[in-house]
């Protein structure tokens, strides 16, 4: 990995950490808080692409696992990854990869609505599938009950998907990081 890529990867891990400074919103019926950090997950994939987006979120998750208090509310450590929200957090590198992969495959005809759909697929559906499954397992909940508790997050996550799609398309048009990487690889 080149220095340029390492800087971008580190920068996006830091962006996700900074989004954690926004106080989480606790909901009374679930132990998983609403955070702004999933916006960073979507942005990393849509702006950096699959490989760099994955590595940036993997770095972030490793830092969390090592105890860095960079999750919303100043949380960090293995207890968080093995707690109720662990499935959501552990899915982030893969979600970023999925979003980045879809953006890369459609880069030449990239449009807001496409990135929005990619964010919904990778940043919401995939993350929810992993998070709900993990929550139902770790909390010994029925999968349906865990799914119902996740419904409250959908409006906020859809808003983050829209913001991410808007920003990603604007950034890719003015400074196409994915296109630059694909040309370097050729």
From TrEMBL:
Xref: InterPro entries: BioY
Transmembrane residue ranges: 7-26, 32-49, 54-72, 78-103, 115-137, 143-169
Pfam families tied to this protein: BioY
Predominant cellular place of this UniProt entry's protein: membrane
Membrane topology (UniProt): Multi-pass membrane protein
Entry's localization field: Cell membrane
Record's keyword terms, sorted: Cell membrane, Membrane, Transmembrane, Transmembrane helix, Transport
Keyword Methyltransferase belongs to the record: no
Family membership noted in the UniProt record: Belongs to the BioY family.
Protein name: Biotin transporter
